[in-house]
Prior knowledge:
The protein is mainly β and 723 residues long. Helix content is 7%, strand content 48%.
Amino acid sequence: xxxxxxxxxxxxxxxxxxxxxxxxxxxxxxxxxxxxxxxxxxxxxxxxxxxxxxxxxxxxxxxxxxxxxxxxxxxxxxxxxxxxxxxxxxxxxxxxxxxxxxxxxxxxxxxxxxxxxxxxxxxxxxxxxxxxxxxxxxxxxxxxxxxxxxxxxxxxxxxxxxxxxxxxxxxxxxxxxxxxxxxxxxxxxxxxxxxxxxxxxxxxxxxxxxxxxxxxxxxxxxxxxxxxxxxxxxxxxxxxxxxxxxxxxxxxxxxxxxxxxxxxxxxxxxxxxxxxxxxxxxxxxxxxxxxxxxxxxxxxxxxxxxxxxxxxxxxxxxxxxxxxxxxxxxxxxxxxxxxxxxxxxxxxxxxxxxxxxxxxxxxxxxxxxxxxxxxxxxxxxxxxxxxxxxxxxxxxxxxxxxxxxxxxxxxxxxxxxxxxxxxxxxxxxxxxxxxxxxxxxxxxxxxxxxxxxxxxxxxxxxxxxxxxxxxxxxxxxxxxxxxxxxxxxxxxxxxxxxxxxxxxxxxxxxxxxxxxxxxxxxxxxxxxxxxxxxxxxxxxxxxxxxxxxxxxxxxxxxxxxxxxxxxxxxxxxxxxxxxxxxxxxxxxxxxxxxxxxxxxxxxxxxxxxxxxxxxxxxxxxxxxxxxxxxxxxxxxxxxxxxxxxxxxxxxxxxxxxxxxxxxxxxxxxxxxxxxxxxxxxxxxxxxxxxxxxxxxxxxxxxxxxxxxxxxxxxxxxxxxxxx
Length: 723
């Protein structure tokens, strides 16, 4: 072991260099230091006497060979550093045929597994165990083991027979080292793995269909010593020797942010462990962490926090320890459920265990202050019941846009009437280009015409002799709001779907933003808005030389920033989105009309409302609006007799299709939908949305494609009478 004084000196130097600078700029996130009295750690005065584990860290996994194989009570803790997950059976009649597997871990020699029948298996090498658990599916059971191989610098996953201890499957994934690794079993039975590598990157994986599926990667910075993951609350806990304990959302579609839940000056945290709420039969998980500079551990849930002193007494004299890892687990005995703690001592190299007293453990098994929040929880539940949430899967996705950051924004769909399968998706890369894709998502064309923000398509626009009955030539066009020039970029679409830039129409807007268009009697009318809320309506004309002009015909304003809009020419109604407020309507039959506010943003819809689109299901028309705040889409029924009346039917979410390796969708800006038959998977139409966080793996933003048939089924489910 390293000398403590040397390590302390190195930490002091590292803190001065790293903490004040690099920590604050790791990535743009909201860091919250939890100092509320409910969660502020105080010494409880409790002293736990430690027991030396002479055989080192050893765990027992349980399995059955009867029909009760799935009857385990999940009592494991997500692991930290060298620990593994444990399942302990409840002492009931269901467990008469319960068998045990002993898991012995030696980081330098290897991993030994022995079952109740005396069958053994030894994995030789130098390993850090991230996860060990008996998994079951279709009456089959196996040991799921995830480790980091120090010799090969790879993450390895094993599937081991519980009966023979033979390795049934071994998978590996190259890694750039491992500073911290942890894992937990997901709801679908797939291990979810977190690895913080030597570059300071946090990598999330899932084992799916016999392969490592890269979910998300992002910079987390230096100093991470261990991790623990709770998939029930979707939380990753990170022990940072420079800062303390961080909490990061494990949902790969969530915003990248971390919360500092613990910091104490001159207290380097190196080990962390979590017990999920389901393990505790509680509404709150339990997190524990340790520092080699304190002979004790911190315990915290949403209602209670404390520091518990740890002392070893092997020679009749109480002595302190220097813990660097911690493992929390639960157990059952005749007195009820309990909590055990396993820690190491860096000074002696030994491993110790202790159990919380029954009274101390009871604090974490009951709901405490959370029980008082039943009214709030019930209110949220009522909202959820009142408005359904239906999930759909994407059929395809486009290639990522070229530019980094928040770049992709708004899509449009050009339906090829001559060859539907050759239709095109037109998307904005708002940092410099208008990009087109085929229906498989492959890039077809990229035009670097400027910082285009929103785009829309118009069909059968008259060329030359405009505004007269003698016009004989018509063309399809795409129009995009261009923030480089505060203009409207006009492009012609030929029969193959290829775009040609015709020119720019200047606007008087101060900062052009969103737009939409409609075509009436061969004339394209464009609504453009800016960030102040101002709208301008232009009538476009195209002469025989394909030069474009625009005539300002109407102006009006909304109270705050708008963006998305869509026009229903059958009812002469434009729907306008005010991002933080709701939806407006405008009668487009006269340029003298003014907009009317019709639908405020209220739960379950969350701001911003940006993208808007129309879609028809069973001869009924619906307005789709992006509910950006909760990564979903609000579905409004448009009343046939009154297009200004909207009824919220519920929400649709686009979930990940792991089989196709297409992630779900989050933080959508723009969207578009069509009922046109585009052939193939899109005979009943197509829905295209911008994906603000393109993961699985982490890449630049892109657009996701959802089959119209899937969208129709989702809306039908929303429309079905509530039980």
